[in-house]
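[Meeting: bench + compute handoff]

Bench side (C.D.) handed over the final construct sequence. Compute side (W.E.) agreed to return the predicted structure before the next meeting so the bench team could plan truncations. Sequence as handed over:
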Amino acid sequence: MVSNAAVPPGGEGKIEVTVNTSGRTGRMSKSVTVETDDSNLPRATLTLSANVVVDLGFERDFLALSGVRRGEAKTEKVRVLAKEPEKLKFGPVKTDVEGLTTKLVSEPGPDGKPGWTLDVNYKPTKIGDFSGTVSVETTAPTPKTLTLNVRAKVEGDIRLEPTRLTVVKGDETGAVGVVQVRSDRERFKIKEAKDPQGFVTAKIKTDAAGQRYTLEVTLTDEGKKHEPTVNTTVTIVTDSKDQPELKLPVYFRRPSAKSPGQGGARPAGLPKKLKAR
């Protein structure tokens, strides 16, 4: 927040900055960009540094397990932050995420002092997006229960590269987005690729039969009616028993037009102005 939008010659203003430290621990740094109409100093950067101290908690609120292939294992370590870790006692570790096993291990932290680490092993048997929690009771008065949120994305043998298609469309016609559908294990065939909304078409090209295909995605006349931004999802139908359908989010957009006066000089005679962002 800026105390004064206009600062007279020789005057001063104040910028109040609030930093959200939720879910953060240890050293952190944030920057604020200040823009003015002063030709000698059109932009300045303020850097704020802090050391966030946690009485007791996991080092992060969320554990993201992405890019995990079904049947393969992925391991992670999450430290327990505590002022007096040597005095802590824990109950059983519980989780509702299928395929996830956890164990608390006593081991020194980065500073060499006694500490605790949650060892996580994830070996999923199903494909899809999953979420849940890991929780453990402690002897500390507060928080009595430590909770770690878990989000997992499990892939099958058939994969999309990229998993989300973004196309920046200029003034030229016929902008095309390209996606590969491939598998290095299971042989498969794409039966069709369609957009239920009819905003895009997806042309299927065979690169290596049974292993690799290319989709060329273009806007339809119906999709062009929704420009400058078009959001939709292409459904890819295959003959695979495990992955009969794959979903491809598609986003077409035109570059944002410059606002009036952007990049030009401000008219002379205006008071000096500040804007923080």
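W.E. noted at the follow-up: Residues 9 and 144 are 56 Å apart (CA to CA). C.D. will use this when planning the next construct.
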